[in-house]
Amino acid sequence: MLTDQHKQSQYLPVLALLFGAFVWGIIWYPIRLLEQAGVSGAIATTITYFIALIMGLTLFREHVRHARIFNGNAHLLFWICFFAGWANIAYILAVILGEIVRVLLLFYLAPLWTILFSRFLLNEQLSVQGYAVMVFAVIGAAVMLWQPGTHIPLPGSEGDWMGLLGGIMFALVNVLIRKDQSHSIQLKSIAIWLGATLVGLGCSFILATPLTISGINVYTWLILLAVGVLMFILSIVVQYGLTYIPANRAIVFLMFELVVAAIAAYLLAQEILTWRELLGGSMIISASVLSRKLNPIS
């Protein structure tokens, strides 16, 4: 019996990470369906994360206390909320505007930015090998972004830029979450959902075509509800997996997202990667995996 319980305790976190990676690998499709139905990325972000926020406030209401929020590090919770909002809106706009796998590869430059933010915000110093990994990731991005006739390899579309920006903001949020040890996971999750809701709402007034609630049909509402519930579940499930799986193993399971996204993009959007994207993407993935095995110098 103990052996079975031990196996279960090992399998459940792995299954949680694989489930999270699978959902993130296909979540772009309903988001694109919403865009086609007239619900822009900004509005979809607002509604879906508002659903997740309401669920979180309902289930974790005991954590929402003045003393728990304003405990001397409320500013960190504010910045988590702010940058998480921009990370999520950038990700959703990226998967609408760009090629799915290409966007995700740019997003997976996040470990590079994490190294830089950790140096300035957490005072972590890397070894020579750590900086070598950074260079490897940059070269991979350059290979993927380079186009004939250009001197500097830069993102070539709005989707590319949004994917890159989303990865930067995602890395910053992760470092801030690590820095903030005085707030619970539940409070930080609520901050993320709140940030995505507020930033999405602000962008809706700037980027989105006006849309009334009555203009959304039942089928579209069901998609919005499903995505909102998935956003809530993903936050909880992935955090559970990361709690019990070492980071250097967890990244291997999370990379399953790229496999799912590549297959889904081919089947659902007829997207095919070029040789430069395959080569550069392989270097970015390798750098992401290696970066999880490097410990900072104390």
SSE topology string = HHHHHHHHHHHHHH
Helix content: over 70%
Content-based structural category: mainly alpha
Number of helices: 14
Low-confidence stretches: none
What proportion strand?
under 5%
Tell me the number of strands: 0
Total domain count = 1
Distance between the termini: 42 Å
Give average pLDDT, whole number: 80
Organism: Nitrosomonas aestuarii
Protein name: EamA domain-containing membrane protein RarD
Transmembrane segments: 12-31, 37-60, 76-97, 103-122, 131-149, 161-178, 190-213, 219-238, 250-269
GO cellular component, one term: membrane
Structural overview:
This protein is 77% helix and 0% strand. The protein has 298 residues and is mainly α. It has one domain. The longest helix is centred in the last third of the chain and has 27 residues. The model has no long low-confidence stretch (mean pLDDT 80).
Features of this protein?
298 residues, mainly alpha, single chain
Strand and helix map with partners:
Elements: H1 2-26, H2 28-36, H3 41-59, H4 66-69, H5 74-97, H6 100-107, H7 110-121, H8 128-145, H9 158-179, H10 185-207, H11 218-244, H12 247-254, H13 256-269, H14 275-291
Helix pairs in contact: 1-11, 1-13, 3-10, 3-11, 5-6, 5-9, 5-10, 6-9, 6-13, 7-9, 8-14
GO cellular component, one term: membrane
Organism: Nitrosomonas aestuarii
Keywords: Membrane, Transmembrane, Transmembrane helix
